Amino acid sequence: MFAHLHVHSGFSFMYGTFLPEALAAKAKEAGFNAAALTDKNGVYGAVRFCAAAEKLGVHAVIGTQLTIEGRDDLVLLAKSPKGYNNLCRLITLAHEYGPRDQPACPEKFLALHSRDIVCLTGGRDGRFFKLVEGADGTQYRRACGWVWRLQEIFGKENVYVEIQNAGTPYDARIMHIMARVAEKAGAPLAATNDVVCLEPGDLPVHHALVDIQNQVHHRACQARESREYYLKSQEEMAKLIPYSQALENTGIIAHECQAMLPLGKSSPPVFPVPPGMSQDQALAKLCYRSLARRFNPLELDVLQRLEKELGHIRRRDLSGYFLLVKEIHSFAKARRIRGTVRGSAAGSLVLHLLLGGVNPLEHRLLFERFLNNGRLDMPDVDMDFDSLRRDEIFEYLMEKYPNQAAMVATVSTFRARGALRSLGRALGYSYEKIDRLTQFVPHFLRSHDIRKAIERMPELEGSPLLQEDELLWLAEKISGLPHNLSVHLGGMVLTPGEIFNWSPLQTSRKGIPVVQFDKDDVEALGLVKLDILGLRMHSAIQFGVELLEKKGVRLCLDEVPLDDPATFRMLRTTDSVGVFQVESPGQRQLLGRLQPRHFEDIIAEISLFRPGPMSGAMVEPYVLRRNNKEPVTYPHPDLRPILKSTFGVVLFQEQILEIAHDIAGMPYGEGDRMRRSLSKKAPRAVFREMEEAFVKGCLKKGYDNPTAQAFFDLVASFMGYGFCKAHAASFAHITYQSAYLKTHYPLAFYFGILNAEHVGSYPHSVILNEARRMGIPVLQPHVNKSGVQYLEENGGIRIPLIRIKNIGPKYCEKIILEREKGLFLSADDFTKRVSLPAKARFSLEKAGALKGLDGAWNAPPPMFRDPVVTSPGLSPHAAR
């Protein structure tokens, strides 16, 4: 039985025209028992292909078209897990030694990682083809020599001469020559077709992608390759390649290749523990040690909660994962890198005991929202760290766990607007025409049917774009295809063993190792993804705390009580510019209406100020009931224990889980599955399934059918509006800490906000005006006093030189280095010692940075008295 063994999906970036899932479906439809995916220098689509093929009963062969030095290609197929490991190593070496856009594996490494790999000599880009194409006896002998060399490397039984026929007389002649040379070399044949599309009509899409990549005008290219490179049937292949054994060999090869990815299997990291102790015991020991310190007196419900969580963790074999999270936090704490947990993980008592943060019992946070028996995917512990020092954590992990730790990839795909613009250039359109055609096409549009999507948009009525049939057809075809790989914002994967058992590595532009899979693929492989994110507010707080320490004030915000009256008084006055999550005009307006007096009010404010609740009529009843201006009512008396804390309003996702559990008798895992399904606008069949299970559970609990249906309607109407309370609580803690710092130490607060850069919604000019309003002197930049960052000076804030227009980091550093040799005594002294362009010198003069020096322009016009206002900003209080 024939099997296609040389196939390029869209993950041969800007080359293949289909996604891996479509390949599996087409192979099934065409009657193939097996098919290979051999994208260029990568296995980017392997997880998706294997998952789709498994569902359809198609045997997936994992391979790659590997480029070796000399720009020659080989098609390599993994026979076993060891073969897949070697494949990943060779791909990694290709990316390590070749240029970024042209990976190439040095030939010397092939022999080191050749075990359990089937090698095809490559198609038109293979060295064998190029040598045979030379058409003289010397080249034929060299072609035989190349086959013998490959047999030495991979084993004689694993090397096949790849033959193709694109349907032209020339291709047929070369095919027959290759067959004769292969016979002389003693190598069997394998028939392939170098597939780049699934249907013959899609070849123009392949050509367009190549032209986009090469920045060539599509219409300017007259000579095109044959239109035969699609997924042909076995009968079509037999007509083109009259070597029956070459066709049969592909089926034999596919059967030999049994490298299966461990889809759906959990692969948590293995954390080193002391001899004689298991990971479970090590985690429990840490938790009980912390328990006595954090809970005094210790009550029974706390112990029961801890035992329940440890049981869940133990059954899922996740103790090593939690120990790893603890290790990361300990490293950060030892180096004074601020960090917190965000997301549903904040609802775990175990994590509270290991890392600190909000108390999940005190704020009624549900562990099952984070981890439950019905959720088989790996849990996410999202951690926020000081943005300016987050890279230290990545470096630590990669140094401690070499060949186990790497960043997760992000796959960038074509959206409608980008596809139209890229294709417009490939089709030779002028930039003016491209702008005219796409100016109203939204950036977010992903539809594969772009024409219909555009026809539904009033702003595009009568658009000339609708007349561009070729452009629209091509754009619809490439919409959703990958166009490049980038690095996930903060996702890191840590494998229990060598990372090459799962993925090759390639390096980012910053030299960081990256796996070839995105977060969904990593999850499908059962690997742990650590989300190590950066938060600028942590940077700002750390700057402020360190300033206080220099002044002899020790402030540990993690130990500050959450009921400080002055802090809540400040929040009620809406004087919260710069405070985390509550500084925008809309947020401050909601603060004014809510009048927070307790920490729970901050949690509610963060949860309410989002598009869902704002548009879902949740804010008004909550605020009115919170302020005793409307009676609290409940949809049903039995919901009172669940909704009492939110005044009868369903606000949190955890409340949905509690309703499903307490009212419908559903296990938390089923309730969470219902929440996730309905929040993603599940298909009607799934919606009906969830509805029936919920209503049936209510009936078993003794409710009548109308009441049961009303409960479900309440839950269903809430989907899409709810917020994870654990996440809101973790962010509310940072909100409170930043508010506390602003209330009691405003100088440190503003100092931190300004130095952390890009914190919140407002430019520096607004923050400086706020500092002035609080009575903090703002001092102009000066060549003898300013630094690269804002400095504290006699209770005021000195503006850095870098905030002056035309004075970038280079000139700023130049001035400071020269000043270290001695202060500037006069304007002339400055001019002699620091060579600057005229416009930079003029900016310093206008900003008053030379003020007080002899010969300086000491009376700048009023418009330059605040040199930091490079972009004007109104006071945020004008928006009240």
UniProtKB/TrEMBL annotation:
Enzyme Commission number(s): 2.7.7.7
Keyword set includes Nucleotidyltransferase: yes
Highest taxon, organism lineage: Bacteria
One BP annotation, GO: DNA replication
Domain (Polymerase/histidinol phosphatase N-terminal): residue spans on this chain: 3-70
InterPro entries: DNA_pol3_alpha_NTPase_dom, DNA_pol3_alpha_thumb_dom, DNA_pol3_finger, DnaE2/DnaE/PolC, DNAPol_HHH, PHP_dom, Pol/His_phosphatase_N, Pol/histidinol_Pase-like
MF terms in GO: 3'-5' exonuclease activity; DNA-directed DNA polymerase activity
Alphabetical list of SMART domains matching this protein: POLIIIAc
Descriptive protein name: DNA-directed DNA polymerase
Organism in which the protein naturally occurs: Desulfatibacillum aliphaticivorans
